[in-house]
Amino acid sequence: MDAKLDFSILKTLTELPGVSGRETAVREYLKNLLKDSADEISTDTLGNLIVFKKGTSDKNLLFCAHMDEVGLMIHFVDERGFLRFVTVGGIDPRTLLAQRVRVQTKSGALLGIIGTKPAHITTEADRGKAVGIKELFIDLGLPADEVKKRVAPGDWAVLDRGYEEFGDGKISAKALDNRAGVFVLTEVVRALKNPFYNVYAVFTVQEEVGLRGATTAAYGVKADVALCLDTTGAADIPGCAPQDYICSLGGGVGLTALDARTITPENLLNELKQICDKHNIRWQVRVAPRGGNDAGAVHLSKTGVLTCGLSVPTRNIHSNVEIISKQDLENTFRLAYWAGQNGLKV
Asked: Element (H or E) spanning 231, and its range?
């Protein structure tokens, strides 16, 4: 099947707020988008969205794609109205300095600017150390009493940066990890017609803080095989040696051989490679000694599930200027669709 993806859906997905544990806006959008493409839609206790499509066989395929994004949670409002925060998920503090955020409160979202002590008044000691989370604050531009009325510890903030298409088929936005995987899975669900498998497309929560949604969701599905759609770091940039790239933009869908949480069974990995070769789907092997994704939880559920992570290479991962390739999205979609529609010989 030729990939004809609706990238306006990806744009909308990246613009929605959805820090780990606060994925409601993403879930409600997907529920409405997919209601006419599913046989059943449900939400479990933890907040995973489970979309079911009846197949022509008695075999079950579990797809996972996590809805959550890394972000911030407010833990202190000082006497001048500046906000102190902790990170939700793994964020390098270097990527936060002088950036915009949207603080999510009961009365609505507030624009904030992340600041620190300006360079022209730093000391020699300041300049000799890296800026950490404790040196950063959020400035809402409001009087302190107004801030204290509207913001409380436990409120959260999302990175703020718009969706842009640029260069040769590249996309930059916040939350491409993992709205890119979510986007691919929505398009797979919309495209499947009388699939071989009974397909359970699960949009999971809280992946960025420990694969929590996938851990519970996998126990609710008796899966014969599972494919987890996510992004992966692409270190194909200056300063990194080729042997450390993990994956490269434009290199195709990343087939996980190994990461810190999973080792893909040989028969499943070989089957996916053969499908790609037969149908001219561009692929690359992902070997990542650090990191993991929902596959790490899924493959350990019950007595074990044949599981592979399908990864979209992403530069600047866990920042508000993540970069992916449209071609990689299309190749990931084509493989996931083929597997669901036609079945895997495993």
From this structure: strand 225-233
The one catalytic residue among 15, 23, 187, 207: 207
8-state DSSP, 22:
-
d(CA 271, CA 344) in angstroms, rounded, equals 7
Q: Are strands 60-66 and 198-204 parallel, antiparallel or unpaired?
A: parallel
Tokens of 300: 């350990």
d(CA 223, CA 204): 16
Whether this model's pTM surpasses 0.90: yes
Domain 7-69+174-342 of CATH type 1.20.1730.10: no
Distance between CA atoms of residues 85 and 194, nearest Å: 48
Residue ranges per structural domain of the chain: 7-69+174-342, 71-159
Q: Is 266 a catalytic residue?
A: no
Rounded CA separation 223/219 (Å): 9
Token pair recorded at residue 337: 């669709």
pLDDT tens digits in sequence order for the chain, 346 residues long: 666 899 999 999 999 999 999 999 999 999 999 999 999 999 999 999 999 999 999 999 999 999 999 999 999 999 999 999 999 999 999 999 999 999 999 999 999 999 987 766 767 666 667 778 999 999 999 999 999 999 999 999 999 999 999 999 999 999 999 999 999 999 999 999 999 999 999 999 999 999 999 999 999 999 999 999 999 999 999 999 999 999 999 999 999 999 999 999 999 999 999 999 999 999 999 999 888 999 999 999 999 999 999 999 999 999 999 999 999 999 999 999 999 999 999 9
> In CATH terms, are 7-69+174-342 and 71-159 the same topology?
no
Domain 71-159 class? mainly beta
- The answer to whether the beta carbons of residues 323 and 170 sit under 8 Å apart is yes
